[in-house]
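Journal club side-thread
Mid-discussion, someone asked how the predicted structure for our own chain would compare to the paper's figures. Pasting it here so we can look after the session.
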Amino acid sequence: MNSPVSKPHSDLLRSLSEFSKEHRAARWSGTFASFLEGIFPADPSGLTRSSHQYLWDMMRSEERLFHDELYGIDGTLSRIKDYFKAAAAGSEVGRRLLLLLGPPSGGKSSLVILLKRGLEEYSHSDAGALYAIHGCPVHESPLHLVPHTLRAQFRNTYGVEITGELCPHCVSRLAQEHAGDFMQMPVQRIFVSEAGRIGVGTYAPHDPSTADIADLVGSVDLSKVSQYGDEGDPRAWSWSGAVYAASRGMLEMIEILKVKREFLYLLLTLTQEKNVKVSRFPLIHLDETIVAHTNLAEFRKFLQEPENEALLDRMVIIQVPYTLSYKEEARIYEKLTSSTQAFREVHLDPHALHVAAVFSVLSRLQEGDERETDAAKKVRLYAGDDVEGVAHSEAEKMHAKSPEEGLSGVSPRFVINALSNAIIQSQAKSLTSMGVLIALKDAIECDVRIDGKKKRKWVDFLVAVRKEFYNRWVKEDVHKALFVSFEQEAQQLLDKYLDEVEAQLDNRQIKDPITGEERRPDERFLRSVEEKIRISESGKGSFRQEVVRKAMGAYKRGEKFTLDSHAPLHDAVEQYLFEQRRDVLRLVSSSARPDDDTRQKISAVEKRMVEEYGYDSHSAREALNYVTTLLAQE
């Protein structure tokens, strides 16, 4: 008897079936006459879009195209969208080659891949329907069949402009197979496919010195010359070049500045004039968007050659830097690790990826005279954290002063390699933040590509990450977990603070519950609590009045004034209690045997760290031991 199919499994099968059905249903073929009669009138403007317009419409329809895949480069993505918006509107930007410039493993290739995948999916939608002459090697628009003498009438009828000429192959077919009757030429709906070489072309120069321009524009197919009897016959030409595959869509040029200058001129002419010239044929019309990318080293070398200045003027250059937000960088690591089996089998403590991310961002900052603490403040600002005495708006000003930030430093690939090595060596199947820092230190010291000075600098960054970030994060976790274990004491502290404040504001004495004697409010106690959240001497009065006002409001509503009623006071009491209970934490690593009550509280702290803060038992115990060591040093 077969076991029942699980719901996720059946849902997946249904999704696959529906996807296949939708993609099959969209197919259409017919003559040019039937295309003009049944297809074209429904969407004239959509069926005469340029490649830039098509890409821009795709990006607008796929609003989350980049959202779930690329992190921390919102500025870059915004500039790319601006480029396509302007190009789609018919501005001169559309006559410029788009060059993505950035460091290795910065997201350039991922960005282009997402554009290609977006085109593929969009072409299967109703809004993204594309039609081409059946059998055309450049899958050109069937509207190229309309004679020039009739295009003005066509424009008056449909309100759209036809641009472009029939390719030599279709000119030959029209004459030989249909005796010039263009209305009988076959037309079909096409779907963008990188694998099928329709609407997407990719070119990567393996060896620039031996690169052949035929890889872009094709060459004579000698095996067919004997069949057709003439090297000038379009049917004897190999239409396998990347520019033909990319027609109607996008051409990706990888490491473009490594190619010969003749390649660049061909590509720039294609971008500006929408045509290419090969021997034996007239100009071949091709409408495609060229997106190229290269690294900084190649670009700087290119800049040094004066003859390249004219070429640079015909490019739109958009930088794709590393992110400077450690939170976004950590998301990149999370994405990269989630797809790897080794990482899924090992637990990472809640700060493991963030400490690695902070280190990466520190390495990407422009070197200056600032101290480590100043660099740490900048890292916090770039991530949107609150920094005392500094407005969030300062982050943009800082970055504007240091435009090179993010264009060098540690790549995500370097970090993932270091984490992978640490996981392989891990016996506990648990990787802690300290384990990550040690793994990064080993990776730096073992990398022969890094010079001695940079190695020392990067190791100093690891020390700064531990002191300026991890120590604070792990102490906060232990604070919170410990605090919950002493909830009753915390509420008693809050009540005491409130009693003392009310007496101080009313200028009255307090009766000691034990001795029965009256005394003045305990100002030292009040200040020791308030100083934990940096309430100044001059600001204590207004803070206390605010607390009493909130307490009175709760009383009038018939509610109890608790720690959750006032967030700043909650933090103050939490930290005060933590300071008062250091002795409990010290017992964690003490050789002395703790009593049952203390053992239970320590166990409760560990349990809470596991259940609520993302630790496992190993990393929770390590964190408690680490914080105990920190307390002993203070």
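Post-session note: DSSP finds 28 helices and 16 strands in the chain.
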